[in-house]
């Protein structure tokens, strides 16, 4: 039986370690096991993070092996090659697919039956790979998708409009990458259509402003990588948010990587779309209003990913 008070982190690099640190602070787990190809690295990170437990809620953080996944409620996979300056997320495909072909069978041979959360990039492709290799039901294999991109969008809009970003309701959908789409048609601020709220705040050049904001969001990771070689704090918070939704069965609506089954004319490709997320994983997709151009861009994003999938040997 899956114990949703226990999580396993596979991969103890920047993203994995920052995510465990964030999860330690959240207090939602009573036990986190860290696995890495470099056992000493996992041990060191677990020791370091566990020293902060006296400032939070009591729990156990330790290094371990794949046998630990047997009773875990959630296994989070961040293991993979890092994105380098000038490299796109899709450039990582072959390296990280090869890594997943080693990791996912190790997880499954230990009879794991919980929620598999994929964070490594390119997350949409790797979620598809993990679904196929693991044999788990699709709803139990979730990619972190555009949860972070959406947070970046909300922050940019909040700053632009001078309002709390939590009052902004908007999604980045499609690929977590260069073909991502800002779903402006369904964006609103506390129920007020975005364009109306912009005008209320004295902004009237909607097309120019939305284009600039979407570009800033899309290029955020590149700008961070150029300056500090890696992104990890933002995605760590996204991992925490997803784990909270699962463990607490919140049924939160989050834009996660999920396989499309005919929605918007797309089938068999994993893309980020708003979904209801709870203890069983993805409960259902949430249809949002998209205009013709947004649907066309979403279909093009799907085609880009589909071409990459056809070249993979799975």
CATH superfamily of the largest domain: Lactate dehydrogenase/glycoside hydrolase, family 4, C-terminal
Report strand order across the widest sheet: 3-2-1-4-5-6
Provide a count of the helices: 9
CATH level-3 fold name of the largest domain: L-2-Hydroxyisocaproate Dehydrogenase, Chain A, domain 2
Low-confidence stretches: none
Description:
By secondary structure, the chain is α/β, with parallel strands linked by helices. The chain has a six-stranded parallel beta sheet, with helices on both faces. Strands 7-10-11 form a three-stranded antiparallel beta sheet. Strands 12-13-14 form a three-stranded antiparallel beta sheet. The chain has two domains: 141 residues, 3-Layer(aba) Sandwich (Rossmann fold); 164 residues, L-2-Hydroxyisocaproate Dehydrogenase, Chain A, domain 2, CATH 3.90.110.10. β4, α3 and β5 form a beta-alpha-beta unit. α1 packs parallel to α2, α1 packs across α8 and α5 crosses α7. 44% of the residues are buried. It is built from nine helices and 14 strands.
Q: What is the secondary structure topology, with strand pairs?
A:
Layout: E1 3-10, H1 14-26, E2 31-35, H2 39-50, E3 60-63, E4 72-77, H3 93-108, E5 115-118, H4 123-134, E6 141-143, H5 147-161, E7 168-169, E8 172-173, E9 181-182, E10 188-189, E11 192-193, H6 194-200, H7 206-228, H8 233-247, E12 252-261, E13 267-278, E14 281-285, H9 292-310
Parallel strand pairs: 1-2, 1-4, 2-3, 4-5, 5-6
Antiparallel strand pairs: 7-10, 8-9, 10-11, 12-13, 13-14
Helix pairs in contact: 1-2, 1-8, 3-4, 5-7
């Amino acid at each position: 039986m899956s114990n949703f008070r226990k999580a396993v982190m596979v991969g103890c690099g920047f993203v994995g370690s920052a995510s465990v640190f964030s999860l330690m602070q959240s207090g939602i787990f009573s036990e986190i096991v860290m696995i890495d190809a470099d056992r000493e690295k996992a041990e060191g990170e677990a020791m370091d993070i566990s020293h902060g437990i006296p400032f939070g809620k009591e729990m156990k953080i330790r290094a371990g092996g794949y046998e630990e996944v047997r009773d875990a409620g959630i296994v989070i996979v961040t293991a993979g090659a890092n994105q380098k300056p000038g490299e796109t997320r899709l450039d990582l495909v072959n390296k990280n697919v090869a890594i997943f072909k080693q990791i996912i069978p190790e997880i499954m041979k230990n009879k794991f039956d919980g929620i598999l959360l994929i964070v490594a990039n390119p997350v949409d492709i790797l979620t598809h790979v993990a679904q196929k290799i693991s044999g788990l039901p699709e709803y139990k294999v979730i990619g972190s998708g555009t949860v972070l991109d959406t947070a970046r969008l909300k922050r940019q809009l909040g700053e632009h409009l001078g309002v709390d970003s939590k009052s902004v309701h908007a999604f980045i959908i499609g690929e977590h990458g260069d073909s991502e789409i800002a779903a402006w048609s369904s964006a609103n601020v506390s129920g007020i259509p975005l364009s109306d709220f912009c005008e209320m705040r004295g902004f009237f050049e909607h097309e120019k402003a939305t284009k600039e904001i979407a570009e800033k969001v899309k290029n955020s990771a590149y700008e961070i990588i150029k300056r500090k070689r890696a992104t990890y704090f933002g995605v760590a918070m996204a991992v925490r948010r997803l784990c909270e939704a699962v463990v607490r069965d919140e049924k939160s609506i989050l834009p996660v990587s999920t396989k499309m089954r005919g929605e918007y004319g797309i089938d068999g490709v994993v893309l980020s779309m708003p979904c209801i997320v709870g203890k069983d994983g993805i409960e259902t997709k949430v249809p949002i209003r998209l205009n013709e151009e947004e649907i066309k861009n979403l279909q093009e994003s799907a085609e880009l990913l589909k071409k990459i999938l056809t070249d993979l040997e799975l």
